[in-house]
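CORE FACILITY INTAKE
Project code: CF-77B
Contact: R.S. (postdoc)
Sample description: multi-component assembly, three entities in total
Requested service: structural model of the whole complex
Turnaround: standard
Below are the sequence entries exactly as provided by the requester. Do not edit them.
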Amino acid sequence: MRGTSVPVESSETMPVASSEDVVRVRQAVRGKAVAAGFSLVDQTKIITAASEIARNTVDYGGGGTLTVETLREGARRGVRLVFVDQGPGIADLDRALSDGYTSGSGLGLGLGGAKRLCNEFAVKTAVGKGTIVTLARWR
Amino acid sequence: MAQTVQTIIPNLIEKHHQSLLDEWQACLKRDGGPSGQTTEAQLTDQSRRFLAELRRGVSGKRFDDLSGREWDSTRSLLDEVAGERAVQGLSPSETAVFVFSLREPLFALLRQELSDVGVLARETWTASLLIDKLGLYAIDSYQKGRESVIRRQQEELLELSTPVIQLWDGVLALPLIGTLDSARTQTVMESLLERIVSSGAEVAIIDITGVPTVDTLVAQHLIKTVSAARLMGADCIISGIRPQIAQTIVHLGLELDVVSKATMADAFALALRRVGKMVTARAQATQGGE
Amino acid sequence: MGEIPILKIGDCLLVSIQVDMHDQMALALQDDLTIRIVQTRARGVMIDISALEIVDSFIGRMLNNIAGMSRVLDAVTVVVGMRPAVAITLVELGLTLTGVRTALNVDKGLALIRRIIDDDAGDLRAGRK
């Protein structure tokens, strides 16, 4: 991850603890994506990825926060999302990342799918220590 | 480690602003002059602004660290200078010469003003390092500029090479020419889906005669495209399957969950049946002809 | 009754999802639909998602659930009006809508339901004719 060396243009933090919050997350990410000049398809991808991770944060992480940032590197603009929760953590990260969806039965964290929708994707987690998911999409 | 030793360079620039600018312009002209579409007036303006920025940046406490805040506007200016030259397709050295040709007049000025050999050596070294860093930054910035030009051209090329054709009411054809990578697949999907919406098509024929090889990745991209079209209510037919492609598909164990045909003609016939149409012969011409 | 209206058109039910749904609404919709399918003996269920800018795995599961329940009740489920950006994203996400047929709009959706019910379909999917 490029991390802190990329200039952050704007930043906004919000709670992600209920299903109403998930709706608000989608609206906030849309706002940032539109401001960064994303095409419609790119907007849809990052908002959908955000929705997936936000749900995980609520359903499995016991609630947490999201920080949405717009980035600018020269002419390139991007949106970065950092989801943080103090939940139980992900026990088998490799499996969670590779699973995607298993015939829509409700299993699987959808991390693999969300990853495919982003340019950058990183998960920091440990059992009992919570989870931090960072994802970013560039124009 | 950051140097916090002061340098007399900012004072020099301030004191001898005009002569330094003139000397620099002379060197620039000698080494290449205003190139491309940058006029002499623009070049002089950019040079004057650069000197002002340089003076400001070097006056800062951590002047040898170009990523610091005091160098923000200098970097912006270099981005502007490099960006212009990148868009015009000039070479990286033509861009770098903008910064590097300042070295000669600056060194000359230092020699003129400083009598102490030790101080002169130190200041010359400082100036040299600074010019190098700024020049390298200009080249990096130029490179990024070129990359974005190339990226934009690639996008335009992609759009040109994925036409979607309406063969009949409700039947679209998408002839793919060239390799199918993930960027191309995105453009293809967008074009196809938009056309499905605007034409209300229920069948899309994807012709791969012009696709040289079909491996696992290409097959994945094809399947993605087919799935996306299906979500929009359109069925797909893949046509243009050459014998070697058919063999490769079986050999690799690829599961193409879609009807495929060898030729576009066969695919079109099937598509017509699917939309409830058929082709019949016209009635024979009566005597007297038409 | 939940907050999402369910309309009856002949022997089909039409649901138009206009808002950004959250969980309780989605669950309520699934319940309501199941009850209505039985009540009206509907043969087709049409879900219009043309107003949805985002379809994530949660909505996807809801659609799959509805399709599953309908099938058990011998009704066909057709999702109509998916936006191109949504289709492209779903495909990238790897979310397959199992047992869900799709059509471009309500008209075509109704026609599709008719065709399937009347067993007249010219199905192009591999394995079928």
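Facility notes:
- The radius of gyration of chain C is 14 Å.
- Strands of chain C lie at 6-9, 12-16, 44-48, 76-80, 101-103.
Invoice: internal transfer
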